[in-house]
Amino acid sequence: MLWLVGVPRECVKWHPTIDPEKCVSCGICMNCGRGVFAWEDGKPKVVRPNECIPGCTTCMNLCRGEAITFPPISELRAVYKREKAWAKVKDALREAGKLK
Predict the structure, then answer these.
(1) Is residue 2 over pLDDT 70?
(2) Is the pLDDT of residue 7 over 90?
(3) 22 and which of 26, 67, 86, 88 could share a cystine (Cβ 3.0–4.6 Å)?
(4) Domain 2-95 - what CATH class?
């Protein structure tokens, strides 16, 4: 995944957390294309947290009950800064022919 060039995914603490008190079981999070959630006992559960794409917050933005949260983006940006990930991503995108 180009978002994490040179950074092991398990070293990036980025995944959703669900507040069960706020969850209204609308199911919108089940649209996650990465399969982060599973439906268990009438509620969503985060079952594959490392499948979440770092920086993505689509499920949180669409959650009807506003039950989904993520770590502060500043923590993710700190990982990118520490690992010099922006330059690595740009190089990888050039190699993939997505940047000229």
Answers:
(1) no
(2) no
(3) 67
(4) alpha beta
Determine the Cα–Cα distance for residues 23 and 17; give it in Å rounded to an integer.
11
DSSP string, the chain: -GGGTTS-GGGS----EE-TTT-----GGGG-TT--EEEETTEEEE--GGGSPTT--HHHHH-TT--EE---HHHHHHHHHHTTHHHHHHHHHHHTTS--
